[in-house]
Amino acid sequence: MASKNLEKQLNILDYALSSLWRRRLKSLSVLLVFAAVIFLLASFQMVTQALSDKAAQVLAYTPEITLQKMSAGRQEAIPLAYREQLAGVFGIRRVVPRIWGYYFDEVRLANYTVMGMDFNEMPEGARLDTALASGTMPAPDEQGRVVIGHSIKKALALGGRDTFSLFRPDLSLKAFTISGEFSQETDILTNDLIVMSLADARDLYAIPAGKVTDLCVYVANPKEIGTIAKKISAALPAVRVLTRPQIQKTYQVVFGWRSGFGSICLLTALAAFVILAWDKASGLSPEERREIAILKVLGWETSDILAVRFWESVIVSGLACLVGITAAYIHVVYFAGSIFRPVLMGWSVLRPELHLLPRLAAGDILLILAFTVIPYLAATVIPAWRSATVPADSALGG
């Protein structure tokens, strides 16, 4: 009995394949549209997930707690003397001053990230040389020497030169000499970055002596970040305390908002596909109705006709998923998700050349199938059922 049913399904599958081949141009057009919709949805999901993973990797190296002074809701320079007030907070391993700012290049309309700090005070400062493609990190007492990111050299059009100048707030020029260049492997962190000593950064931004923009707090036990942050807030009520988990949540919210915006844009393509499927579900062509009527005259049952349409839909859906998801994977791996990166990575002119690793969870695949395969199955099986329930003589007569 089981072998007969299997033989019957194989024969129906053979008929479904031959039916698709007879209507190969129509089947191919549906397959391409179907695959394009799946490609867009899968690509967007893969790029969003890959960028979220990259951000999580980057934030793993940020300080556990960052302190910034606020006045009237805006950030201002924080006194270095605050470090002495933190000396009594148990659990703090080290407090490192940092000047972190942005420099807008009006000629090239690009923003550079400028960071000034004493690398010898950083817990992992000795390992920074391993992130360089060439040169060395500047010593704390070396003035005017910087390490630049991969895109800075191109943006400044340095060519073979290793010197450049930036404007101070009073429009006087400050000269810098390049002592090293970051590796492209760290582009997600260093692509638009200029690293210099604390004294040079203070001079460039005209920050008074004894002040910086941030205090980076490193704790002995990461499980006590929340407790230590509360103690710091109590000791320094005028200071904004940012913990690493809070920054990670902020990045998740940002990517979530941008991915939501992109998803709304993709809904237009999805809506077009659903409308196409619904229009197809409203009825079959005269040739398809005549084919169903002839099959019923030859003794086919309604369930057999539905099985043919089901197998046709499964074949088209399976091929479309295979082509769409494969194309999406290639798009993310070899083209770094170039279609959706401008939406998800923001307004920066200097974007890093990322090598994204796509990751598509089972839930994402089920979501894509629910939005694409189910409408298409409904669009093929429902009209076939409606035509199969009409008497054969009526269908042939119509």
TrEMBL record:
Main localisation: membrane
Membrane topology per record: Multi-pass membrane protein
GO BP terms in the entry: lipoprotein localization to outer membrane
Domain MacB-like periplasmic core: residue ranges: 30-234
Assigned keywords, A-Z: Cell membrane, Membrane, Transmembrane, Transmembrane helix
Location(s), subcellular: Cell membrane
Highest taxon in the source lineage: Bacteria
Protein's UniProt keywords contain Transmembrane: yes
Domain ABC3 transporter permease C-terminal: 286-389
GO cellular component: plasma membrane protein complex
Transmembrane annotation, as ranges: 28-47, 255-278, 314-336, 356-378
Family assignment from sequence similarity: Belongs to the ABC-4 integral membrane protein family. LolC/E subfamily.
Protein name as it appears in the record: FtsX-like permease family protein
Organism in which the protein naturally occurs: Thiovibrio frasassiensis
